[in-house]
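Worked problem 6 (solution included).
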Amino acid sequence: MPARAFITGLAGLRLTPDERSFLREAHPWGLILFKRNIESVAQVCDLVSSFRSEIGNYAPVLIDQEGGRVQRLGPPHWPVYPSGAIYGQLYDQAPEAGLATVWLGARLIAADLSALGIDVDCLPVADIPAQGADRVIGDRAYGETPEKVAAIAAAAAAGLMAGGVLPVIKHIPGHGRATADSHERLPVVEVDRNTLEATDFAPFRALKDLPLAMTAHIVFTAIDPLAPATTSAAMIGVIRETIGFDGVLMSDDIAMGALTGSISARAHAAITAGCDVVLHCNGRLSEMRAVAEAVPRLSGEADRRTKAALAVRRDPEPLDLAAARAAFADLVAKSTVPTGTLS
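Solution. The predicted structure is:
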């Protein structure tokens, strides 16, 4: 039976009996993990295995492991990785070496994830920050030009895929101009379409062949003055036609403050607008049930896209982890931006 068109969170470190029943009945397409779900290597492996056992297939398991401010895995069991801004600085110093560092960092993240059974990372960030924007993107961004951002994002995606992990481009069609944090309230971008297409949308156009992307909860008044991209048929038309992205389009978390209405209404609106899959993260079972009831089973183009994305998964390429970590630390040491612990 086809999965339902949503990705779910879970409440804690282990599946509860109610969650087990929910997973069997609702059959979400995937699972996303957060810090509340992470304690140790063995525990995460057990949680991932238990989820897939209840679903009955090798469903995708996602995580946000960017580096910098956004990484769910960290010490003492996993390394800290640099922010996007550090990669951007290394690229400015020496583009070829910078891209090699980006690739290696993503490859090492993939090694961390694949060892746990996690096969999708919500990375790379292809947003271009603008002057005066909220810091929610900030140093997560790779740079200020479409060409630089696209080049670094492509290297990160390639590193993940070499390690057997699928990338998710964030946040299509661009979160960099947001003057508010969409976790808290709805950002509105009042910039003309020509400017958007030449800047904000451009990195996503260059990355359009990647398998998955996550929407931005942002209103772009030049295209749809009312609805954020996640729930706007006009904006999703831009993503599909102008940008040309034909991979799996997943919403950002529908429980975020940028969206209004009940969780059911939000989920329904995202699917109706053209999202293939809805993302719901907080692990509250009552909301999880509401999402499951509001979304359909995968069919048609959404089913085709999700199957095509998962077909890209492959076994990790061989890697000498100890040598790779040492080489990565040496490369990142060339940055003048503080990085934290890298091993």
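Discussion: DSSP finds twelve helices and twelve strands in the chain.
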